[in-house]
Amino acid sequence: MKTFTLVLLPLFLVCLFPINRPDLFQQELTVATPEASKIVTGADQVSAYLPYLKGKRIGMVVNQTSIIGNKPSVDSLVSLGINIVAVFGPEHGFRGNASNGAKVDDAVDEKTGIPIISLYGKNKKPTKEQLANIDLMVFDIQDVGCRFYTYINTLNHVMEACAEHGKELMILDRPNPNGFIIDGPILEKHLYSGIGMHPIPITHGCTIAEFAQMINGEGWGGLPGKDLCKLKIIRVANYTHDTPYTLPILPSPNLNTQQSIMLYPSTCWFEGTIISQGRGTYMPFTVLGAPALKGIYPFSFKPVSIKGMSETPLHQNEDCFGLDLRKYDTNIFRKTRQLNLQWLMELYKAYPDKARFFDTSYSKQIGNFNFRSGNEALQKQIIAGVSEKEIRKSWEPGLSAYKQMRKKYLLYP
């Protein structure tokens, strides 16, 4: 039997308030580390929070990315004597093996015997009854910094429930691999949905803890006025928003490479079009194409049903022709600080039946293009052949206003 060993880091508890706003009810715990250049996630700084968990009944919002060292955090904390009474699982489930958009049912974890409560099934946020036996909630999920990636919605729902029922929320923070880019149109309120519920651009440039502070500070979701969520944050050590970060655990079935994670903000909005993003292959979000582009592009791929990834993909069992981005140099995003609009403009121009390009009524796509882009203007601009420069100009002043507002909630340079 393998034994579980933890190397505890030196403990220096420092209470900080990055924002001069006591109404955020935040106490922050940080840890100094001996290796000044090494990123250390909040979860890996065990000595910073283990004493705070002792003697409490803990609920954990986690998935397969929630690790301490190379072990699942739930398993690790149970082995250290922490009383975890419930696990709350987001989209893709606790162990990360459910397909995108698939309903996830409640269950019992076979390994630990802990009840698993789905937050992507019959209810999106914990109920009063589900929180009754919990003293402290812990949120530890790897995000990728994109508006339509649903974990920030899960965070908001958990914060609402904690605020409503008087529960404190500890966030074990993790780096944002796309934290250096803040770009895209601001989501308009009439387009709020399950793939976007905050007035933010496509890439928001925050870690989960920073975004939690923003939810509190801006009164989003069900957190107006006095009903703020009490936060306790374990910061990432030695991290900046410009620090390159390769995820040690892939965050969801269709973000299965670092390349897909970096391309995702610029390729996911194709889900609101007739163009396949590679779901139904083992290279999702790194290829783009459709059967009608045959003869225009030489590269091809064929989506098929893959259990746990994409079971009914767009253009299933059809040859799709288009762009192969698997070797695209994603460092260009770090240089430009912008999403790639050219692929969207190029494929629309190349598509023979333009009336069908944004029509998803024939497929099982999740929402239409406007829900992805966040406004109704971008689709019309692409159809009208508006230049990229003019499109980007139309995102103002909203984008600049967001960037300014974001500064109030930053924990890292």
Automatic annotation (TrEMBL):
Span of domain Peptidoglycan beta-N-acetylmuramidase NamZ N-terminal:
58-258
- InterPro entries xref list: NamZ (IPR008302), NamZ_C (IPR048503), NamZ_N (IPR048502)
Peptidoglycan beta-N-acetylmuramidase NamZ C-terminal domain ranges (all copies): 262-412
GO MF annotations for this entry? peptidoglycan beta-N-acetylmuramidase activity
Q: What is this protein called?
A: DUF1343 domain-containing protein
Organism, as annotated? Spirosoma foliorum
